[in-house]
Amino acid sequence: MVLAEGFFGVLHDFFGSGGWPIIRNLSIFLLVVFWLAIGYWVYKDARRRIEDPWLVAMAMVLGLVPPFVGVFIYMLFRPPEYLEDVRERELEIKAMEERLSHRRQHCPVCRAEIDENFLVCPVCTTRLRQSCETCKAPLEPLWQVCPYCETPISTPTALQFPPIEPPREQAGSE
User: Fold this and answer.
1) Considering the domain boundaries, does residue 84 fall inside one?
2) Same domain, 95 and 29
3) Is the pTM of this model over 0.70?
4) Which of 10, 42, 109, 154 could form a disulfide with 63 if both were Cys (CB 3.0 to 4.6 A apart)?
């Protein structure tokens, strides 16, 4: 019993002293500052992820109202990526689509830039396409009929590549 009185006596002396109100008030102040800092973080994060100002305000209220729990609720339901990342990805997709729509064709042999209507590569003279027998329009290899004059394509010819030169023998290698 003496031990219990001694322990409770120490607690009574501590809580009755002038140090306890200072520690209590400082702890409450730090909790309030931390709570407001969490609200500010939720506001800044929501502005980077959400376009609608009303939704940003609602996210900040959600982050503040259930103290210290609202931030976890916000983190579960916030958009997964920043608006800046979404815009950047959309710009990259548009740029790729534009590149693909203006895709330049190249000769399969010399890689020179060619027009889609060329029958022969002007650089290396590789036959690129066959021409229609009637209207002389360039034809794609898989076409069965000329789309310009409706002439059936008899036998599609394969692309003709220039012959491969045999390796030259070096004079001093005997």
Assistant:
1) yes
2) yes
3) no
4) 42
